Amino acid sequence: MKLGAAVTVFVLAAALPVLSAQQPGDPSSKAPTTFDQKSHQGTDNKPATGAGQTPAQIELLETHIRFETDGSSRKEVHARVRINTELGTRQFARLNFDYNRAFETVEIPLARITHAGGGTADILPSAVTDQPNPIVVDAPAYQDIRRKTVRILGLQPTDILEYRVVTTAHAPLAPDFYLFHTFAKDAIVTQEQFELNLPSSRDVQLRVNPATAPSYEGKTGEGSESRMIRRWEYRWNSPEGKAKSSQDLSTEPDVALTTFTSWKQLSTRLAEKFEATENITPVVLEKSNDLTKSAEKPEEKIEAIYDFVSQKITTVELPLESNGFRPRPPAEILSTGYATPEDKMVLFSALTRAAHMPAIVAFAGAPDEAEKLLPRPSLFSHALVWTGTGKEGRGFWLDPSTEVAPFRMIGANLRGKPAFLLLPDTRENSSQSPWVSVPVDLPFAASQHVNVDSVLAADGQLSAKVHYSLRGDNELLLRVAFHQTPKEKWGDLAQLLSISDGFRGQVASVNASDPSNTRQPFSVDYEIVMPKFVDWSKKPVRIPALLPQLGLPDASTMIITGGAASPIDLGTPLDVDTRATLQLPAATTAHAPTGTSVERDYATYASKYLIQGPDSAGNVTLTASRRLRFLLREVPASRVTDYKAFLHAVQNDEAQDFTLERPASADDHAKPGVKKTFTPTQP
Q1: By the 8 A CB rule, do 23 and 551 touch?
Q2: pLDDT at residue 32, rounded to an integer
Q3: Which of 66, 143, 369, 465 is geometrically suited to a Cys-Cys bond with 197, CB 3.0 to 4.6 A?
Q4: φ and ψ at 540, to 5 degrees?
Q5: 3-class DSSP state for residue 492?
Q6: Is position 379 within any domain?
Q7: Does an H or E element contain 542, and which?
Q8: How far apart are the C-alpha atoms of 422 and 411, rounded to whole Å?
Q9: What's the pLDDT tens digit per position in 126-175?
Q10: Structure confidence at residue 618 (pLDDT)
Q11: Domain co-membership, 500 together with 573
Q12: CB atoms < 10 A from the CB of 231, how many?
């Protein structure tokens, strides 16, 4: 199981549109918390906004950052917070500051409460603790990654909390340094000040959002002591502040700077860090030989190494920059059995090279067209590795950090997106761009098969057995969820899964295939009971086909870019096949809706509804099937009318019901003396 998983399995499962092909982004993915020069507000519990009074108001937020010629820096954050409600006191009861003591120090010279009724109370040094970050408690090799916590005791509504935090850092990629900062621009911050102090002797690329231009630019000192000062100051509730906030439609930071001259230079610098750890030691060579001894083909050897690194080396889920780009030696990783995502790439690369096959560490998670932005490693959030068989340049991408990703499968949020290769400065690499694109295709056909076998009792209770078999993006999400959840908690996952399917009953049992058996589709089985599913006193009873709803993108979500509508994203091509049977109680008659068939070049849909029986015992069985196949990745904007017609046909078919009738005598026999008033539950 991962240490410090990026997302709770419950949120992951609840977010699953299990029969949806639309997975252009991965729910498990999130913006990383970084430990370098990025600006933070001194607390990981930012107050939530809402109607009426906010729990706390940051009346002043000051940030001063000074860089030196050697890349070291000093950042000072000063905040003054007015506590409005009890929720605000809880949110600011602890201030957490994450850092890496290998190259950073954090000091808190001021933490003070000013009471509304008069008087102040300074927070004593005994209220400050410095411990390993909770993520690395069980990973001693990473316990330089720390969390300094200040307990704010005695805080009450109407109090003012004031604190000052000073972080000094030695740049991990010295003498180069980089930074980005984005202003708050929200109702929680009243006034914000930001100052940037740079040595004039360093060549710095700087980009500033035109909507948030500095209020002051000037120089101090002479010669080698000369420095460039820039200041920003905003009152976000003022007309000027609101105007600037409304002008800012960019997803880029307001202030970004770097001393890296090019992406090529950054690639080389990072490669120096990671290549240095890839020397093939005897321990690494022995392990590589042991893993590949029974494999005959090169790709089989790579798969054996991948299975070991992904499943036998526990992932310590840390932000990409948190360890200062200081990879651990592969032999050390083998001895401890755990590693960060980038360290797992280093280990995989070393084992693969020991088997005489290529491997290159890469960073991913940057936005589209990232190569046009200032070169800085803070754009990346994920580590991957490129490898191959060495024949005719054939290669493929792997992600051992996910632990249960099938071989050659990359998450939907990274496929088709840019990746940044860490290439050493060699003659062979002199003309090669470090930027490549992760292939958009899966290594196998994506499919989702669902079978629902159910029985309707004479008293209206429905019992159903649901079976899933999945290949593709939703398969990976479910694998991760079940892998990260103790088996005794799988019932909670199945309950959330059933709710997303529209079944409003109680899950009685659940079972799943081994999440680490990635060579086969992932399967989930659960049983669910829905009391009073129908009310036989209603004449007639109408029930839907007991199938999960199919997820199709809404044409109304089209984005207008540059005056033109964007294509409708259908996501990864996918074959969804759902089937259901429902055995009715004796003496029940039924009528089935008419099936539908719709075909387009981008998708096809077909449904069938049948009534079988009665059998020798007088039982009637309803059967329903729906199959939706996404053939293309997108529908051109010019065909939106055609797509809307396709969508309308599918939705109309899903809205159709079976009609059931029972003789009054049969109802009376089922529940004598009981008046039924329950309305059918729609799954």
Answers
A1: no
A2: 28
A3: 66
A4: -85, 170
A5: helix
A6: yes
A7: strand 541-544
A8: 20
A9: 999 999 999 999 999 999 999 999 999 999 999 999 999 999 999 899 99
A10: 74
A11: yes
A12: 15
Residue 95: pLDDT band (50, 70, 90) is very high
- CA dihedral (265, 267, 268, 271) in degrees, to 10, reads 160
Q: Could you tell me the two tokens for 633?
A: 């990745």
Q: Are residues 478 and 612 in the same domain?
A: yes
* CA atoms of 220 and 66, how far apart (whole Å): 13
- Residue type, position 526, single letter: Y
Instruction: Judge whether residue 5 has pLDDT over 60.
Output: no
pLDDT in tens, 212-231: 999 999 999 998 899 999 99
Residues forming beta bridges with residue 506, ordered by sequence position: 529
Give me the CATH number covering residue 430.
Answer: 3.10.620.30
Q: Which of 212, 240, 258 is the last residue of a domain?
A: 258
94 and 228 part of one domain: yes
Q: At what angle do helices 263-275 and 341-354 cross, to 10 degrees?
A: 70
- Residue 372 burial by Cβ neighbours in a 10 Å radius (0-12, 13-18, 19+): exposed
Domain span at 353:
263-437
Last residue of a domain, one of 415, 437, 459: 437
Q: Are 416 and 544 in contact (CB under 8 A)?
A: no
* DSSP classification of residue 524: E
DSSP H helical segments within 276-391, as ranges? 282-292, 298-312, 330-336, 341-354
The verdict on pTM exceeding 0.70 is: yes
Do residue 195 and residue 336 come from a single domain? no
| Residues 364 and 451 grouped into a single domain | no
From 468, 447, 463, 452, select the one nearest 625 (Cα to Cα): 452
Q: What strand order describes the sheet that includes 128-132?
A: 94-100, 145-151, 128-132
Could you tell me if 472 and 380 lie in one domain?
Answer: no
| Tokens representing residue 100 in the block | 């890496």
Q: Are residues 245 and 308 in the same domain?
A: no
Q: How many domains does the chain have?
A: 3
In a domain, 548, yes or no: yes
Q: What share of the chain is helix, strand, coil (3-state, %, to 5)?
A: 25, 35, 45
CA distance 532 to 92: 48
Q: Strand 56-67 and strand 191-199: pairing?
A: parallel
DSSP 297: S
pLDDT-wise least confident of 59-63, 351-355, 380-384, 545-549: 545-549
Has residue 422 been placed in a domain?
Answer: yes
Counting every residue, how long is the chain?
Answer: 683
Count how many Cα atoms sit within 13 Å of the Cα of residue 497 in the half-sphere of its side chain: 30
Helix (H, G, I), strand (E, B) or coil at 78: strand
pLDDT at position 622: 96
What's the maximum distance between 2 C-alpha atoms anywhere in the chain? 103
pLDDT digits (tens, 9 = 90+) for 434-457: 999 999 999 999 999 999 999 999
Q: Which CATH number goes with the domain that contains 72?
A: 2.60.40.3140
pLDDT beyond 50 at 94: yes
Q: How far apart are CA 590 and CA 659, in angstroms?
A: 5
- Across the range 485-501, mean pLDDT stands at 92
What would the pLDDT profile of 512-525 be if each residue is shown by its tens digit? 999 999 999 999 99
Whether the predicted pLDDT of 357 surpasses 80: yes
Tokens of 314: 């526990």
Which band of pLDDT confidence, cut at 50, 70 and 90, is reported for residue 394? confident
Q: Name the residue among 630, 568, 569, 638 with its Cα closest to residue 601.
A: 630
What confidence score (pLDDT) does residue 553 get?
87
Looking at residue 613, its pLDDT comes to 82
User: Minimal CA–CA distance to 414: which of 430, 401, 428, 431?
Assistant: 401
